[in-house]
Structures are given as C-alpha cells and as structure tokens.
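Protocol step 4 of 5: obtain the predicted structure for the target chain.
Materials: sequence only (see below). No template structures provided, no constraints applied. The aim of this step is simply to have a reference model before the mutagenesis design in step 5. Sequence pasted as it appears in the construct record:
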Amino acid sequence: MATVVDLITYPVKGCAGTSVDSAHLTPAGLAHDRSFMVVGVDGVFRTQRRDPRLALVRPTVNADGGRLTLVSTEADSGHGALHLDVTTSAPRRDVDLFGATYQGIDQGEEAAAWLTEFLGAPSRLVRVPPEHDRKTDGLTPGTSGYADSSAVHLLSRASLAHLRARLAERGAPLLAMDRFRPNIVIDSLPEGCQGEDWAAEPHAEDRIRRAAIGAAGLGYTKLAVRCAVTLVDQEAGARGGPEPLRTLADYRRFSAGGVVFGTKFAVVRPGKLSVGDEVTVEEWGEAER
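Step 4 output (structure tokens):
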C-alpha cells in the first residue's frame, strides 16, 4: 500500500495546476481536469512546448463548473483576474489536438482578449462539450477531456527522489514535481503503519495494472513518455536547460521511443479521492521497456 500525498487538477490544458484536498474522479479524470483548452485562431491547441507562459496562468473552477477564474502568477504582470461565466450552449468549433479533430465550445471575446494579451499571440479559450466522447488508447480503454492521452497521470515521490539523486550526481538543479504535472502523487505509508512498502521503490508505479484509491479504481494504460514541457520552469514560465530529459535518457529510454517517467491510467470506477487515501494495488504486471 501507499498513500496519496497530493492531488492536482489542471482545468485549462497547459496552464498551472492547483492542489486540492479532495476531488471527485470522473470517467474523464479529476473533476474539470483539462476541460478547457487554449487554441490559436486555427484551432490548434497551445502548449508549453511553444508557449511556456501558459505555466503562469492559474485557473480555478467552481464546484459545478459554471464559473472559471484565470489569474496570472507572474509578479507585477499587470493582468487582472478574469472571472468568466462558462457557457456550454455557444456554437461548437473544430479544435486540433495532436492532429486529431475534436469539438470545443468557444468561451467568448473577453477570455480570448485576456489570453491573447498575456501570451502575445491570438488565442481563444474552448471548453469540452457535454457530448464529448473521446476514446483513449492504451492497455485499458477509457476517456479524457483535453489531456494528452489518458485521464490520470500518477507519479511517486520515490521516482522523483531517484531522479533528483541522479541530477545531483551531475551537478544539475534538483527539479520539482511540477515539472511532470501529475494528477496523483503517492508516497510510502506513514511511519508506524503496517503493510508492504512498495512505494519506496522508484518506478513501482510502472508495474501497477489495477489499483483502488478511496472509492475509485484505476486501470493501467501506458507509461508517460516525456516531452519538452518538462524543460519549462513552471514558476518562471520559461524554458530552461536540457534537464530532466538529458538525465532521464541515461536510464529511462523507452523501446518505442523517447524517455518515460510516471504512469497513465484510465478510470475504471469513478469516486471520491482525498489526500491521505491508501493506494491498494489489486493487480501487478511487468513494467514496459
């Protein structure tokens, strides 16, 4: 067993995340996670790979999803908060996510103007429509909003600690967890608790095939192949040096290409999750290589 030590939701794809004490896990992931997306005038999604300043936009959504707030985390940015009444009735438009076409509900001119000014590029804000029926790939079928792929990204503190030790060996900066933008962060059981301490093993999450957390259940889809977003300093909103990809390439190369760090899951049983919930592995498998 292990415990949940952080839950992070990212209401707007590519923007900053917000830690929460508890959240409902829907079939598409944590409530409201990646339910909004910033796109260019051509409908192609904006990403920190090209627009690292997205990291400086912190969105929050109220419980029923009807009110979205965008604030800048940049000191003295001069950008006031945007408070937006979310619409689900406006006309749909085509949006492009990694070459796949989906539908988005445009959230209007005020949101477009705020994001355009902040990012320095013409931008629109869209929301996943209620009829969104995206099918995600991987070992376990599932769905998600505008996430890169699967609904949930899980990462352990042990995996990050192992990476940080390797970074220290080469004199590189010790990167924070937010470089990897997980939804669920797990750690070993608190001291004094009884149970197999598998979470102390780096990358043990790679071997999980089915897990129960709180009232919810997860099914393994794939390993998380890392991209240039991990090079973006999430506090500065700017791309840094070659880490962590340079160090990950030393020991986490994936046979299918790229480097991997963390694990993606589909939701097989929705339910409430809370920080402190135990993670019970119901089925193990061999880690993909």
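Step 4 remarks: The two ends are 24 Å apart (CA to CA). The longest strand covers residues 216-225.
Proceed to step 5.
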